[in-house]
Task: inverse folding
């Protein structure tokens, strides 16, 4: 089973990027082919054998990853599995690629694997990095309904069947959009605690666009993927949760601006999931209303 890796970079973390690429090169088994995408910036110096693509403008996280996918052939079909890794991450073990090969070979229904993200200094995993509602035990592997964008492995047959990440999202919730489409097509998603990407602990709100993008893309996610009856329920629940978290006044203003934008702008094609997929998500512990 041939494995490739896509890394997008803004060109501002050359030392971290080099450490990540060294950790990929040190994987057991057959070599992992790597493509680094400079998302609107020059790519720092990389080791020999690593391919690079420099984009004239920042296409956003899903847009940059999609360019990396296509560098492996249409829909990434030159390889069987693609790893998507943050440029400031680091594979903690040398057997991660082999574990991926084994997992996909042993389970023909498995489409996506979400890695565990751990702080390199403390080894701790933030609750938000466990892609399920019952997230108190990050060491428990399980079936899940979504995955982590910068620490995952995707079977390229999934991309060929349901399409790539949604370019228009730019940042936030693009993984859940792909996850829901994959689940609707019959694929499964696993969270694996033994596949670890070291990544410094950070707050997602460090990004200036965080609150607006999260709200806008939440609306787009519902409009694109949910049966009509569930759209207001899903968005109503998230509105309530947002208010209960008591964000700052500027953050709340940005959130409501993004929420309005999500209703007033095109979100891409609408392909509502089947009701049996709604039931599957519910059985997996996360009904698509939260």
Result:
């Amino acid at each position: 089973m041939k494995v490739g890796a896509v890394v997008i970079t803004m060109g501002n973390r050359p030392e971290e990027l080099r450490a990540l690429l060294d950790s990929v090169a040190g994987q057991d088994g057959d070599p992992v082919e790597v493509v680094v995408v400079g998302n609107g910036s020059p790519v720092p110096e990389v080791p020999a054998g690593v391919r690079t693509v420099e984009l004239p403008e920042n296409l956003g996280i899903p847009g940059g990853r999609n360019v990396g996918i296509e560098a492996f052939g249409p829909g990434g079909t030159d390889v069987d599995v693609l790893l998507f890794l943050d440029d400031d991450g680091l594979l903690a073990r040398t057997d991660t690629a082999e574990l991926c090969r084994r997992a996909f070979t042993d389970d023909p229904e498995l489409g996506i694997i979400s890695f565990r993200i751990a702080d390199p200094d403390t080894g701790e995993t933030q609750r938000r990095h466990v892609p399920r509602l019952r997230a108190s035990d990050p060491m428990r592997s399980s079936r899940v309904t979504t995955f982590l964008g910068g620490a995952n492995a995707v079977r390229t047959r999934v991309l060929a069947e349901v399409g790539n990440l949604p370019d228009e999202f730019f940042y936030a919730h693009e993984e859940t959009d792909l996850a829901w489409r994959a689940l609707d097509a019959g694929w499964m998603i696993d969270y694996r605690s033994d596949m670890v990407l070291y990544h410094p602990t950070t707050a997602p709100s460090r990004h200036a666009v965080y609150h607006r993008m999260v709200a806008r893309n939440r609306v787009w996610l519902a409009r694109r993927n949910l049966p009509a009856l569930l759209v207001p329920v899903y968005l109503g629940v998230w509105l309530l949760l947002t208010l209960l978290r008591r964000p700052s006044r500027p953050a709340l203003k940005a959130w409501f601006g993004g929420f309005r934008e999500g209703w007033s702008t095109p979100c891409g094609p609408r392909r509502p999931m089947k009701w049996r997929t709604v039931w599957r998500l519910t059985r997996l512990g996360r009904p698509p209303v939260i």
User: Anything to note?
Assistant: The longest helix spans residues 210-225. The longest strand covers residues 188-198. The two ends are 36 Å apart (CA to CA). The chain has a mean pLDDT of 95.
